[in-house]
Amino acid sequence: MTDKASSIPGEHDLWFCPLGGTGEIGMNLSLYGHAGAWLMIDLGITFGGDRFPDYDVMMADPGFIEQQRERLAGLVLTHAHEDHIGAIPYLWRRLHCPVYATPFTAALVRMKCARAGIDELPLIELDLGQRFRVGPFELEYVTMTHSIPEPNAVFISTPPGAVLHTGDWKLD
């Protein structure tokens, strides 16, 4: 367990904290920290398969951010594949933050949450290419090419620096 005060990003910080999905396929959950706040990008699942035959579905452990959920400014979704949105019905009740998505992704998230009995999800629909603010983070959706409608990278801008979070993409 880490000291809670040491896990709060300062005004001059831009932290990246991958809780899942980095270096693997599936269960994407990335955090960016700045000015006392956290921004989550994607909340997905992965499938057990041959490596984990006893498990049908697996997800990242959100315990770190759950302990600081009052600092979680929001969840931004890059696109509607299961490895980016599949854990929302299972984990959102532990996080209780606004969710940002493009219309296609938002429609699938609404359907998944309705099936799970979640009707209080604060889902904010954004246009492709839209610029928006979540807490201290200036964001912009950057439309990509992928195998599903409305895939996006997210350009994250803060005074200490900027990051392009790609989500998934492919070259055509």
Write the layout of secondary structure elements.
Blueprint: E1 15-20, E2 29-34, E3 37-41, E4 45-47, E5 57-59, H1 63-66, E6 72-76, H2 82-85, H3 88-95, E7 99-101, H4 103-115, E8 123-125, E9 131-134, E10 137-143, E11 152-158, E12 161-165
Parallel strand pairs: 3-6, 6-7, 7-8
Antiparallel strand pairs: 1-2, 2-3, 4-5, 9-10, 10-11, 11-12
Instruction: Give the overall silhouette.
Output: globular
Order of helices and strands: EEEEEHEHHEHEEEEE
Mean of residue pLDDT values: 92
For the biggest β-sheet, the strand order reads: 1-2-3-6-7-8
Percentage of helical residues?
10-25%
> Structural class per helix/strand content?
alpha/beta
**Distance between the first and last residues' Cα:** 44 Å
Radius of gyration over C-alpha positions, nearest whole angstrom: 15 Å
Runs in which pLDDT lies below 50 for 5 or more consecutive residues are none
Oligomer: single chain
Beta-strand residue fraction: 25-35%
Biggest sheet overview: 6 strands, mixed
Number of helices: 4
Q: Care to count the β-strands?
A: 12
